[in-house]
Amino acid sequence: MxxxxxxxxTGGIGSGKSTVADLFARHGAPLIDADIIARQMVVxxxxxxxxxxxxxxxxxxxxxxxxxxxxxxxxxxxxAQKRRKLESILHPRIRAEMQRQADSLDSxxxxxxxxxxxxxxxxxxxxxxxxxxxxxxLQRHRVANRDHLSPSQVDAVLAAQANRSERLAVGDDVIxxxxxxxxxxxxxxxxxxxxxxxASAHG
Length: 203
Fold this sequence. Notes:
By secondary structure, this protein is α/β, with parallel strands linked by helices. The chain contains 9 helices and 5 strands; from the N terminus they run βαβααααββαααβα. Helix 2 (34-41) packs across helix 5 and helix 3 (47-56) runs antiparallel to helix 5 (80-103).
């Protein structure tokens, strides 16, 4: 059976990964989103949520026994060791589910949307890496406005991620998202055709 070409879509917070992913989906590219899978992994009663509560305490749950993602985020962004603990709980499960979904597809290529692809050492999951790039000043502005974060909170989030140069160093393809919607759509259309061509030669 011919294996599907897997393109890892990544980029820093506020870079516009979701917008780019949606544009690829309009071209018919299947999306496998690590964040969506992560949310599915921590529903009440799940093994992952049980392990998270055992590691971080019941303060990470709301009144309904659902994961309070904001509370958990504040804990792990303030402590790198705790962040690594959370990653050790979630990443292997997310990785296995993404692989399962990719293997079930009948399509020339798919996008694996992995925000922390560079940081989590998951490069071996994909054949190519597509980086959505944005200047840091614009990135900070978008994040602060979207998530209502203070400058120090933005600093903490960015510090937990690979920096711009580290992402660009591993990218096979780059979409620069600092212009108009039309410019973004044109870049996606060009890459879609490239991936179809690469997929046809992919074994």
